[in-house]
Amino acid sequence: MYDVNSKHADDFINHDEILATLAYADENKNNVSLIDSLIEKAKKRKGLSHREASVLLACQIEEKNQEIYALAEQIKKDFYGNRIVMFAPLYLSNYCVNGCTYCPYHLKNKHIARKQLTQEEIRREVIALQDMGHKRLALEAGEDPVRNTMDYYLESIKTIYSIKHKNGAIRRVNINIAATTVDDYRLLKEAGIGTYILFQETYHKESYLQLHPTGPKHDYNYHTEAMDRAMEGGIDDVGIGVLFGLDKYLYEFAGLLMHAEHLEAAFGVGPHTVSVPRLRHADDIDADSFDNGIDDDTFSKIVACIRIAVPYTGMIISTRESKKCREKVLHLGVSQISGGSRTSVGGYHEPEPDDAKSEQFDVSDTRTLDEIVQWLMKMDYIPSFCTACYREGRTGDRFMALCKSGQIQNCCHPNALMTLKEYLMDYASPETKALGDKLIEKEVLNVPNEKARAVVTENLRLIEQNNRRDFRF
Ligand code: SF4
Ligand code: SF4
């Protein structure tokens, strides 16, 4: 039975409740007065329930859909301003004992090159990432209890934080690894990770079991309850997501929001981020053989409805998406993007030879970080390399309280300007630097508090003239 507070996956992601939600959304997809009342409710910026948001996602009235997009855009502006936080994935190992049918790292794929980075190789990758300008990483690895052990992850995190190359530093390490135990999560927390990320892939249990026929990941309940264990282990920033294209998007959308509601109800804090990857072509995987793919318009609608339903939750898209698609969804709610990504093991230090490919999926947006930064600024976004919250102890419910009151803006905006300035000084091309300096000059006037504005102005000067780094609010 559906129970948002229950610790059992089958209760908080209850199949019957999702079916009832989909039926309710379908019945009401042309119900103008209900849709109007939901849009009004959403304007209060307190979010919507999975049932309510599902009606908006199913809505087929063009005029109302335009109102939904406009509201998502406004909420995005109110909570995140024009900042976009940058990050890069770092693949540690593609050894994996699971049989996920949509991922080239599955155990039976014998023609992919298998690699696990040594600590020395990690060092080289991190220096290459620092030389691009990255400050925030998401570690990625397959599940292999013999090779990819917790000790390996802990040592790798330590290595990454210890590398200081020129003015570079990785200041926040997020990690996306297989579901594990409360004790392991506690160790990750102690090692100083930012967010623990784990995608559900699909919330549809029957499909999940078919898509994950072998390996420990086959255990749907253990996987679905991972975030509960992570929270019990003290990780209060968790990132959820589904892989759109595996099952029907309306089902996944309802499941995703139910998961967020569950974490909020059971632990008092919802997910820190939501990721919205779409299935991509990869070695040994034909994305066309999955028939639940969604087009760009549907994808945009999903992004807008997530923004409305969980206004305080960051939203991430990766280089799986093309430049065109990213442009379309950035203003609707996305707050974090990756740039200059390599989805192979060891691809930053040295590009892979064609006959030894180890990437997880084809990257659609292949531009360099400098090109992405420039592109964002040309659209009037502020690329931000900020990692301040986790380092200032603003995590979990403390972070959420600041988000909900809007006070976080007083930190995000100045931090975006100061970290962008660091990027411009240390890594940008002359053209990007010229654009960025102009943008900073304009945006510094938008720091609302006079005292804070004076501090930011002085810090920007110190970054430029005294080679000082790492200021933060
Ligand atoms: Fe392994 Fe993850 Fe790929 Fe599944 S999705 S095969 S668990 S790396
Ligand atoms: Fe993110 Fe906190 Fe920095 Fe804002 S201040 S961009 S919420 S890390």
Automatic annotation (TrEMBL):
Residues 82-320 form the Radical SAM core domain. It comes from the Bacteria. Pfam families: BATS (PF06968), Radical_SAM (PF04055). Residues 349-363 have a biased composition (Basic and acidic residues). The keyword tRNA processing does not apply. Its cofactor is [4Fe-4S] cluster. Residues 341-363 are annotated as: Disordered. Keywords: 4Fe-4S, Iron, Iron-sulfur, Metal-binding, S-adenosyl-L-methionine. GO terms for molecular function: 4 iron, 4 sulfur cluster binding; catalytic activity; metal ion binding. InterPro entries: Aldolase_TIM, BATS_dom, FeFe-hyd_mat_HydG, rSAM, rSAM_sf, ThiH/NoCL/HydG-like. SMART domains: BATS (SM00876). GO terms for biological process: sulfur compound biosynthetic process; water-soluble vitamin biosynthetic process. NCBIfam families: rSAM_HydG. This is Iron-only hydrogenase maturation protein HydG. It comes from Faecalicatena contorta. The lineage of its organism: Bacteria, Bacillati, Bacillota, Clostridia, Lachnospirales.
